[in-house]
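Board notes, transcribed. Complex of a protein with beta-D-galactopyranose.
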Amino acid sequence: MLKKLGIAVCASAMLTAGAIPAQAADKVADELEIFSWWAGDEGPALEALIDIHGKKFPKVDVVNATVTGGSGVNAKAVLKTRMLGGNPPDSFQVHAGQELIGTWVKADRMEDLTPLFEQEGWMDVFPEGLVKLIGTDDGIWSVPVNIHRSNVMWYVPDNLNKWGVRPPQNWEEFIEIAPKLKAQGVVPLALAQNWTANHLWESVALASLGAEKWDKLWTGELPFNSPEAVAAWDLFGKVLDYTNTDASSLSWQQATDMVVDGRAAFNVMGDWAAGYMSTTKKLKPGTGFGWVASPGTNGQFMFLADSFGLPKKSPNRDQAIEWLKILGSKDGSDAFNPLKGSISARTDSDLSKYNDYAKSASKDFSHDRIVGSLAHGVTANEGFMNDFATVMEMYLKTRNSDAAGKAMVSIAMKNKIGQ
Ligand code: GAL
């Protein structure tokens, strides 16, 4: 199996295998610090995992260290300071893909989890493609806890009926119906603080480029300043014309609230919005809220996966390993994901525990064309993402597509993307 995944198990990894012992409940440290950005409204799913841990290890004090801010905008900066200052948490949230590999693995800050994957039988339950994303030739570096979809458009069915519009199939259709919504005093598309502009951008770019060219942006086969890539910025600019002017002061939840409260018709957000609407707002999928693939991306599933890793020098390493075991387990996964809005990263999850949104996402994931998210760490490292946020700020002020394309060429070079 290891061979099939193309992951060479080096001698040191095998030595580490012996260092990941099965722990007896009374032989572990009495503290565990887990670090993430799942605070407040984003907390319930994480708490379900902490509850499982608490039942197994009642004597261990869990420090649930969270830094608020969607997509980890603030948490990642705090984590960086802690990691570089030699003060890592025991385990931390990180996106599968380049955010993990191109940032923390490259900096040699993570422990290889190959022995744990073997011991827990995870090589057979996590999809091969996903294991590749969290692995390198030298090891496997995190435990995936979910699969989220980035390219989803949300709405409230009754409100659309009232306003006489239907969910748009493509952005041209959206641009056609948007004035009709505006005329009724409704914001066509709710947007929040800047990272959500990055999030919207990736859905618009996927629609504009198609899956194949989207992939080629990240392998370097399609230049960021090519006419196709620049055209994606042009389309993005047209879409932005129909968003709220106070976007930069809103959280993603507040933009979702605009849709829920009937102040806006749509928003494009990852399916943690389904978790928020069903778990926090108690809305029923299908009637309380509806969804379609974001315009022009039907049949394409832009995915991301949250995962947790084990940093080198984790102060309570044994407990961190116990935590990771819960995360990767079937029970853990099926307790976490139904609350989170995501689907399990495991292939054997119990779908009867999931709501209608998750069931439809799971179906789409099984047959759609899968592409990786930029905004949530799959296609590029953190250095690129930070620089991309600056490009976005510049674009929001100037709406200059050519300049954005050129700037992306230089940040790709700087952060070694597509080389
Ligand atoms: C993503 C993360 C999701 C959710 C979202 C909003 O980056 O993968 O799990 O937390 O940010 O904060």
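The pocket of beta-D-galactopyranose is lined by residues 37-38, 42, 70-72, 148, 252, 270, 272, 304, 306, 376 (CB under 6 Å). Residues 382-398 form the longest helix (17 residues).
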